[in-house]
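step=predict obj=PTS system sorbose subIIB component family protein n=166
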Amino acid sequence: MTMDIRLARVDSRLLHGQVATSWAKTIIPDRILVVSDAAADNDLRKTLITQAAPPGVGTNVITVDRMLDIYDDPQFDGLKILLLTETVQDMLKLVNGGVQLKGLGIDIGSLAFSDGMTLITDAIAVGPSEAKSIRDLHNLGLEVFAQKIPNDGKKDVLPMLEKAGF
């Protein structure tokens, strides 16, 4: 047995109001794991992220390697997890490292725009690296979808990539 991941979400904003309110109320996690090497290495970001957690839900900001270390640790068996990564590439590292998300899929909630990226929704911007990682996740048999909040329907990200020329 391993931890019970209830939601695997990529969100460049990591833990923010939408996740702390809408998603946490729907998923009802025991713990929120924020997996980001950059955030785990920044004490201010870690403090701000943990302060945004909903009351009564433990939150940890950890590195990708730490997540892979604890994934099979029996002390986390059955713990209901809301898993957040900052990038699609980090989510791919977790899957390639053994984190099982089949049947659950990956929600791309938000990816911030920067130079060289293309908006595929009003909240998701991708560049060649993000597009490749999304395709890699899909080719591993995982559903990759966009869903801002629980009441929104899931929208398959692959047709959006194709429409944007990726």
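step=describe
The radius of gyration is 15 Å.
step=end
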